[in-house]
Amino acid sequence: DGVTEVLAHRSDNLRDKFMEIPCSEDYDSHRRFAGCTPRKCGRGVTDAVITREEAERIRRIAERGLSLGGSDGGASILDLHSGALSLGKHFVNLYRYFGDKIHDIFTEEDFALYRDVRQRIQQRIAQVFGISSSAMYLTKPTFFSRMNSTGAKTTHDEYWHPHVDKVTYGSFDYTSLLYLSDYSKDFGGGRFVFMDADSNRTVEPRAGRVSFFTSGSENLHRVEKVQWGTRFAITISFSCDPAHAIGDPRLA
């Protein structure tokens, strides 16, 4: 590939950066929803939606949840919606596995912050792509990820392969990532890479930074292997199809 352009440096403080690109044909093989299905495609980065302090609070939620388990390999997942938690080479349901002890781990305030952050990201995506935020639905999987340099033990640990979200998860129309740690300070490697025909374009994670994009083949991407340290992020995804909607997580 040879050519790499940095779309967002860690040291940048970006109000809004947006790059429009032609939509792929991926959306044609799915039902279209007026006022939501992408007609304008592209990718954006903003440091102006979530504060660093909020990102640190969100990261602590991820750390507490993931302290209950964790993958034997380099990538651990925590999904507050479904309860999926990496444990060794498998997944367990956090809520069934730990039962009432969950109330010792998470608080109502944690879940309220999570919901608030999700709503603000949804509103920013809607604004940038010129759609109604009420036409977008949170969809699964939406999850925390913790990545380190431990070798892969299962295919779930191999997070670095290029992929297209719309192909992997048919429900996805808009994908976002909220970064919860800093590239080159908390970890090395682990940059997000958009793989375009003419060059690679990278986003360097920074706590509080939101990267968002339309989910089709126009945004083929991968994550570099983490070389050292620990990289935390949360993937929050949206569908235009109400049949794929999920609710916000709640502390039962």
From TrEMBL:
Database matches in Pfam families: 2OG-FeII_Oxy_3
Gene3D superfamilies (UniProt xref): q2cbj1_9rhob like domain
One function term, GO molecular function aspect: L-ascorbic acid binding
Occurrences of domain Fe2OG dioxygenase (ranges): 140-242
GO cellular component: membrane
Protein name in the entry: OGFD3 protein
Cofactor: L-ascorbate
PROSITE patterns: FE2OG_OXY (PS51471)
InterPro entries with a match to the protein in the record: OGFOD3, Oxoglu/Fe-dep_dioxygenase_dom, Pro_4_hyd_alph, Pro_4_hyd_alph_FE2OG_OXY
Keywords: Dioxygenase, Iron, Metal-binding, Oxidoreductase
Record-linked PANTHER family: 2-OXOGLUTARATE AND IRON-DEPENDENT OXYGENASE DOMAIN-CONTAINING PROTEIN 3 (PTHR14650:SF1), PROLYL HYDROXYLASE-RELATED (PTHR14650)
Domain of life where this protein originates: Eukaryota
